[in-house]
Amino acid sequence: MSLTVVLAEDSPLMRDGLVGVLTRFGHRLVAEVGDAESLITAVRARRPDIVVTDIRMPPDHSDDGLRAAVALRREHPALPVLVLSQYVEQSYAARLLDLGSDGGVGYLLKDRVSAVTEFVDAVARVAAGETVVDPEVVRQLLHRQQDPLQRLTPREREVLSLMAEGRANAAIARQLYVTEAAVNKHVSAILQKLDLRVDGEGHRRVLAVLAYLRA
């Protein structure tokens, strides 16, 4: 499926490489920009199928690209956004997942772009509404937790084990013979203790289960 793409990347060499890959797989670049302000302007004018943006861009050369993505998602909640980063930053990953679940989101390391088929697959999946997180990002984030499951009570571990089986809160309540409100309280405590401070509970549940399976 051909997608219309707005690309934001301040490095001309990297931008040309991304353009080459995307066009080779049939996607159409409707705007190629090098700073956060131009990204916002281009998306408002072009209304693309997906935004692909670097995190660090002018004017501040900090997290301008991510802040622009957050602003655009507030305007257009269903806009798919794929963010590229030079290295893993936990706060960036949390803010990205915080964009919500109305539209697809992705967080890839720039090294992943060299694996062309993986990168293009990620673009298509995010455009289709999925959440795509670089495997190295997941690995490092979980490693930094330093066995977070030790913070959980036995009951919270029991709830998390049932979450790992894919059970919804109502089903967990029936299994444990408790109220659904009690399960909601346990789930909130689990997510808080695992330092998963984002609003999209579906994303947080996935990360919580990954932590459980790793342990």
TrEMBL record:
InterPro entries: CheY-like_superfamily, NreC/VraR/RcsB-like_REC, Sig_transdc_resp-reg_receiver, Tscrpt_reg_LuxR_C, WalR-like. GO terms for molecular function: DNA binding. The modification 4-aspartylphosphate is found at residue 54. It comes from Streptomyces niveus (Streptomyces spheroides). Gene3D superfamilies: 3.40.50.2300. Keywords: DNA-binding, Phosphoprotein, Transcription, Transcription regulation. SUPFAM superfamilies: CheY-like (SSF52172). Pfam families: GerE, Response_reg. Residues 4-125 form the Response regulatory domain. It comes from the Bacteria. Signal peptide: none annotated. Residues 145-215 form the HTH luxR-type domain. GO terms for biological process: phosphorelay signal transduction system; regulation of DNA-templated transcription. PANTHER family: TRANSCRIPTIONAL REGULATORY PROTEIN NARL-RELATED, TWO-COMPONENT RESPONSE REGULATOR. The keyword Phosphoprotein applies. This is DNA-binding response regulator. The keyword Phosphoprotein applies.
